[in-house]
Write a structure and sequence with these properties.
The complex is a heterodimer of chains A (142) and B (831). By secondary structure, chain A is of the alpha/beta class. Chain A contains 3 helices and 6 strands. Chain A has helices at 3-25, 32-37, 130-141, and strands at residues 27-30, 43-49, 66-72, 77-82, 95-103, 106-115. A 5-stranded mixed β-barrel of chain A has the order 2-3-4-6-5. Chain B is an alpha+beta fold and 831 residues long. Chain B is built from 20 helices and 24 strands. Chain B has 4 domains: 1-199, no CATH class; 203-376, no CATH class; 420-546 and 788-818, no CATH class; 669-769, no CATH class. In chain B, strands 6, 7, 8, 9, 10 and 11 form a 6-stranded antiparallel β-sheet that branches. In chain B, strands 15, 16, 17, 18, 19 and 20 form a 6-stranded antiparallel β-sheet that branches. Classes of the chains: A alpha/beta (142), B alpha+beta (831). Chains A and B meet through α1, β1, β5, β6 and α3 of A and α13, β3, β5 and β20 of B.
């Protein structure tokens, strides 16, 4: 067998091995219930913010603690605790992707991805001359 | 029904759209004419020249077409013709000229246009220099131009819209909230504007350079396909080589400009985040560099020609694939770069496959005909290890593409996979080993000779650089003191291995320039590029493994979760109340104020750094800001600010502030007091006194008119042992009344002169003071040690590419002057 063929075979074998291990890293989208079955693993959970339940972010007490409630795709509502600051415009999010794990009945979250309303589809042409007025007022105040 | 609208400028749009159609048709004519001319050339028919002339004319026409499109679009944007959707959507009146230009490529249409313009420029150069290759090479580029022009057509064929016309009118774009009347334009005061996040000088330079990089990958591709098509399997190599070097140089520059942008103004916390779009542009660069190496192997030894064909074909295909990923919307929200979906994903797929399928078909069909020596390269030769190095680059590209394509796999296999939870480590844990091998290869391989089993030679020549490198590794390994425990001992060892092999590569390449090339810089391009790349790797290792979060919060801890068996999730945000120094690393850090400017959507937060030993002497002040996105993307986004030192950067950004959400500060209301001269008002930590009232005040903020009757209150404030003065103004201007407020920002004290009660001889003064505990920011701060080595390494790598580009072009010009030499030169010091 030629050496180049051997090298090629070895490389292909290594590449397949690595790709299998890469797939092992891939995460899946779960619900709170399925994430609770494996509290030792991190998952992604898709859900929506439950605006009727309280959100807590009090940077004076702890700038790295933000808690809120999310309803997942199965309709279950769980408390989520995010170790970090409260993302701006959190209320406007249509959908939230949480990364983290279940701990008791709380989802400990290490990453939040928000899907906000499409930035262009809801665009409306601003037709008033509010802006011009505002500028005038601004100039007067100065 | 044709109704008349007042004030529209329809001419530039009509010319522009006509130019799109002209460019599209002319590009087709050029494609056909050039293809026919190259077939004729194959058969040595004489009308080849007239076909080529036609091809040139048609190409020239489409060049004029594309430049006309660009000119019309720029004209529209420049004059704020908001009757055009593109101008309304991407610009506003307050944009400065450079951002008006940059807004051209904010949208998909404009960035396609940019790409086509670069194709035009490259095509014109090729017409001049490509000689007998003009027919096939220009045929392929013209075909790409057809594809791009079709992206701008916006014409319906059989119910399917082909392309998106950049000259569509606002009233036809379906965004008007009402039926436009004849005077609708008078109501459109301003456009939606350029996304504030993009209002950055990087937006002016990064896209043009990157698109030149993308556009230039077609030249090696076209030469390779031309070589296959005309069966001149080896002749294309020499004219193509400088283009390959050029393309890799520009694409690399464009990618790293993006990295610098990300570092400077995004909150990734670094220059590279393995973002899908970053990956998609890196991958073609890797295969392009692999191709340059196999091409050199072929030039010197006759080996690896098939691999070279493959690499240049795949590089261009990967550029198209990256275009598809970025623009089809398939990446969704997982990337900062993703354009909005224009509903063109089908067309983008067609663009990808019309190149992919024929290119792979002709490659497979002619594969056996491509010359390849029967004998194998001996083990101890340069060509053998260069080939291995190219394979490594390719494998790296395969791994990166595999994970980046998760959304594509999900579409194809109807799966529901998500990105790895720890994206960076997912890539790093594989790529670090490839980087180690590449660094080792760039150190050693050039000391081998081509075509000779040169183990002895290598051992003799490389001994000295190796010895120096070993010493250097000990010294720097000890000095650097990398302790990166996050992913365990194995990864730490890998980091040290990469650090050492990169040091070895820098020294071995310097040694090669000094001892082997005897300082002849003309031929040193490759060694310079390799040394630069290794330096870049050193910078990457140091700046990431020794990156330090200095804003770790040790106070808070309302509720602590056990993240110890997961990714570390340190408490990276720190609470900075106004005016109170907080310890961070070696610094005492104080939030000292914020500022805004009219017309600027940013709020700047002044954060003062002082040495812990000498807290009274501030060292420097950083101004990270928060800006309101004009397009409502995420409401607000943070812009970091960085203090640069020669050996480190201190990088800060504001994650939250008390005054970004209006309800936060509005909870504190003004209280109105009726004051006579001499009266006092008690404040949180002191009091104020109304000392006197005076006429005709002068303050920069107050612009008097002759009819004004103005009064100022002279107020003295005592707080915390210090004294301050303020003079709010109240005026009557005809029938109107007005006020000019005054603030003492260090006390967060706002004073508003409301009015005068002449009967009681009192003034009405409204006072608001935001308590310090309600006035704060939440800050993140990193230290990046030796980040400058990253930029230095990138710069040297680009310089190395440039040197070898100049060398290649010079070589060709000299050879052309002398005569044709045999295909394989046999110099041993020539990369």
């Amino acid at each position: 067998m030629k050496r180049s063929s051997i090298i090629l075979l070895v490389l292909i074998a290594v590449a397949i091995g690595v790709i299998v291990s890469l797939v092992g890293d891939f995460s899946t989208y779960e619900t709170f219930a399925s994430a609770a079955r494996h509290p030792d693993k991190e998952y992604r959970v898709i859900g929506v913010l439950d605006k009727s339940l309280p959100q807590v972010y009090d940077p004076q007490k702890d700038p790295n603690y933000f808690s809120f409630y999310v309803k997942d795709k199965a309709g279950n509502i769980r408390k989520v605790v995010y170790i970090g600051s409260r993302p701006t415009d959190f209320e406007r999010s249509e959908q939230i992707v949480l990364t983290g794990h279940m701990q008791d009945s709380v989802f400990a979250c290490s990453q939040i991805l928000m899907k906000c309303p499409s930035k262009y589809k809801n665009d409306q042409v601003a037709v008033s001359n509010m802006k011009a007025q505002a500028q005038q007022v601004h100039a007067e105040v100065k | 029904m044709a109704s008349h609208y007042i004030g529209e400028h329809l001419l530039p749009g009509q010319i522009g759209h006509l130019a799109v159609i002209v460019a599209f048709v002319a590009a087709w004519v050029a494609t056909i004419a050039y293809t026919v001319s190259s077939v004729q050339q194959q058969r040595h028919l004489s009308d080849m020249h007239s076909w080529r002339r036609l091809g040139r004319m048609a190409f020239l026409v489409q060049v004029i077409g594309f430049f006309t499109i660009f000119g019309c679009l720029l004209w529209i944007i420049w004059h704020h013709y908001f009757e055009y959707y593109y101008a309304w959507e991407h610009t506003s009146r307050d944009l400065s000229p450079k951002f008006l230009l940059a807004s051209l490529w904010e949208g998909q249409e404009g960035s396609f246009l940019l790409w086509a313009l670069w194709h035009c420029v490259l095509g014109l150069i090729l017409i001049k220099v490509s000689k007998s290759w003009e027919g096939p090479v220009m045929g392929i580029i013209s075909f790409a131009q057809c594809c791009i022009a079709s992206m701008l057509l916006g014409i319906y064929f059989f119910g399917y819209r082909v392309g998106s016309n950049p000259f569509i009118l606002l009233r036809n774009a379906g965004v008007m909230p009402f039926e436009p009347g004849p005077d609708y334009l008078s109501m459109i005061r301003d456009g939606a504007g350029l996304n504030a996040l993009l209002q950055n000088y990087w937006m002016v330079i990064h896209p043009p350079v990157l698109f030149l990089g993308f556009a230039s990958t077609i030249v090696p591709f076209a030469y390779a396909i031309a070589g296959l098509g005309t069966r001149k399997y080896s002749e294309w190599v020499k004219p193509a080589l400088p283009w390959c070097v050029f393309s890799a140089m520009i694409l690399g520059t464009g990618i790293m400009l993006g990295g610098a942008w990300a570092y400077e103004s995004l909150t990734f916390g670094g220059y590279w985040a393995w973002d899908p779009v970053e990956n998609a542009s890196l991958v073609p660069w890797l295969t392009l560099v692999a191709g340059i190496h196999t091409l050199l192997v072929y030039k010197h030894t006759g080996h690896s020609l098939r691999a070279s064909f493959f690499f240049f074909i795949i590089s261009f295909i990967l550029v198209l694939y990256s275009t598809f990923l970025t623009r089809s919307g398939i990446l969704g929200d997982s990337s900062v770069h993703a354009f909005t979906d224009l509903g063109m994903s089908g067309q983008l797929l067609v663009y990808l496959f019309v190149f992919l399928i024929p290119a792979l078909a002709i490659f497979a069909y002619r594969y056996r005909e491509i010359p390849a020596p029967r004998t194998e390269e001996p083990l101890h030769t340069r060509e053998f290890w260069m080939f291995i190095g190219s394979l490594l680059l390719f494998i790296s590209a395969v791994f990166i593409t595999f994970t980046t394509s998760i959304p594509v796999w999900n579409k194809i296999f109807h799966t529901n996979m998500a990105e790895p939870v720890d994206r960076e480590f997912h890539y790093n844990r594989i790529q670090i080993f490839i980087a180690i091998l590449i660094a080792l290869g760039t150190a050693v391989v050039q000391y081998y000779k081509y075509k000779q089993n040169s183990w002895q030679y290598l051992r003799k020549k490389i001994a000295l650089p190796t010895a120096i490198a070993v010493v250097a590794c000990f010294i720097f390994g000890w000095l650097s003191d990398i302790q990166y425990s996050k992913y365990g001992l194995g990864f730490l060892i890998a980091i040290y291995l990469l650090f050492f092999t990169s040091i070895y590569a820098v020294i071995a390449n310097l040694g090669y320039i000094l001892f082997m090339l005897k300082g002849r810089l003309r031929k040193a391009g490759a060694s310079v590029a390799h040394a630069g790349f290794a330096l870049f790797l050193i910078g990457v290792v140091l700046s990431s493994a020794k990156k330090q979060v200095i804003s770790i919060d040790r106070m808070g801890m309302m509720d602590v979760f056990d993240f110890s068996n997961k990714n570390e999730n340190p408490r990276e945000n720190i609470f900075l109340p106004f005016g109170v120094p907080v310890q961070m690393g070696d610094y005492d850090v104080t939030y000292v104020g914020d500022s805004t400017a009219p017309g600027d959507p940013k709020i700047y937060y002044a954060v003062q750094f002082a040495d812990r030993q000498h807290p009274d002497k501030p060292l420097f002040t950083l101004y990270p800001d928060i800006l309101k996105n004009t397009k409502g993307m995420q409401g607000y986004s943070a812009n970091p600010h960085t203090q640069h030192f020669w050996n480190k950067d201190i990088f800060t950004y504001v994650n939250y502030a008390s005054n970004i959400e209006p309800d936060q500060t509005d909870t504190v209301r003004y209280h109105t007091h009726a004051l006579a001269v001499g009266d006092t008002v008690f404040l949180q930590n002191g009091y104020l006194v109304l000392r006197s009232l005076y006429r005709n005040p002068t303050r920069p903020a107050y612009r008097p008119t002759p009819q004004d009757v103005a009064v100022a209150a002279d107020i003295q404030v005592f707080s915390g042992g210090k004294s301050y003065t303020a003079s709010p103004i109240y005026y009557l201007r005809g029938n109107e009344q007005g006020a000019v407020d005054d603030t003492i920002s260090s006390l967060q004290l706002y004073l508003h002169f409301e009015g005068i009660d002449p009967a009681a001889k009192k003034i009405m003064l409204a006072v608001k003071q935001i308590p310090p505990k309600d006035h704060f920011i939440v800050l993140k701060a990193y230290v990046f040690p030796f980040i400058n080595i990253v930029w230095l390494g990138v710069g040297i790598t680009i310089l190395g590419f440039l040197m070898s580009l100049v060398h290649r072009i010079r070589q060709q010009m000299e050879k052309r002057q002398i005569s044709q030499k045999p295909v394989y030169a046999t110099k041993d010091v020539d990369i």
